[in-house]
């Protein structure tokens, strides 16, 4: 079984979307490192902290974020009786939803996804806590997938 992967532009959109939070976290960490120096009179100059510690924090922030964005672990497959969604880098999750249990599917776009021409397809099943989301599909493909899922769900529900 071969998973269909998100578009590579999704990684760029996620990087841009998280860049602000990464900068805020780095500034906060730098401030927390500088405060003890100011009050205790540490002998390490401020420029050492800014040129050594801050880049180190940024490096690890980007490295950890890269694992989250890494698209090798994300995808979906349309099986004969089920719709399967795989996600997660550290905590792997594979969800298989029978077509007959599909209640509705929706296509959504945020500002960054819209900027790159991408969309997400979210599927809700008859189980109230069950949902499956695929991010990073081109808008036309997302609309087609939504229609395909809804039509297969209707056909399975009707017993065709």
Short descriptors:
3-stranded antiparallel beta sheet; single chain; elongated; alpha+beta; 160 residues
| C-alpha termini separation | 25 Å
Number of distinct helices: 4
Mean pLDDT: 79
How large a portion of the residues is in β-strands, by DSSP E? Answer: 15-25%
**Helical content band:** 40-55%
Please state the structural category: alpha+beta
Spatial strand order of the main sheet? 1-2-3
Pick out the low-confidence regions: none
Main sheet record: 3 strands, antiparallel
The total beta strand count reads 6
Radius of gyration: 22 Å
Taken from the alpha-carbon principal axes, the silhouette is elongated
Q: Would you list the SSEs in sequence order as H and E?
A: HHEEEEHEEH
Question: How would you characterize this protein structure?
Answer:
It is a single chain. With 160 residues, this protein is of the alpha+beta class. It has helices at residues 9-40, 46-69, 111-115, 139-158, and strands at 75-78, 82-87, 93-98, 102-108, 118-125, 131-138. Helix 1 (9-40) packs antiparallel against helix 2 (46-69). The radius of gyration is 22 Å and the shape is elongated.
């Amino acid at each position: 079984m071969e998973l269909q992967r998100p578009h590579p532009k999704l990684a760029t959109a996620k990087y841009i979307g998280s860049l602000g939070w990464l900068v805020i976290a780095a500034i906060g960490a730098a401030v927390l490192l500088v405060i003890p120096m100011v009050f205790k009179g540490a002998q390490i100059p401020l420029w050492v902290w800014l040129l050594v510690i801050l880049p180190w924090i940024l490096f690890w922030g980007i490295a950890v974020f890269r694992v989250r964005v890494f698209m090798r672990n994300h995808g979906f497959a349309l099986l004969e009786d089920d719709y399967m969604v795989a996600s997660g880098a550290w905590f792997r999750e594979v969800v298989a939803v029978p077509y007959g249990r599909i209640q509705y599917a929706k296509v959504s776009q945020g500002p960054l996804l819209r900027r790159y021409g991408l969309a997400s397809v979210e599927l809700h099943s008859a189980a109230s806590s069950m949902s499956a989301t695929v991010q990073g599909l081109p808008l036309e493909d997302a609309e087609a997938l939504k229609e395909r899922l809804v039509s297969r769900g209707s056909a399975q529900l009707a017993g065709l």
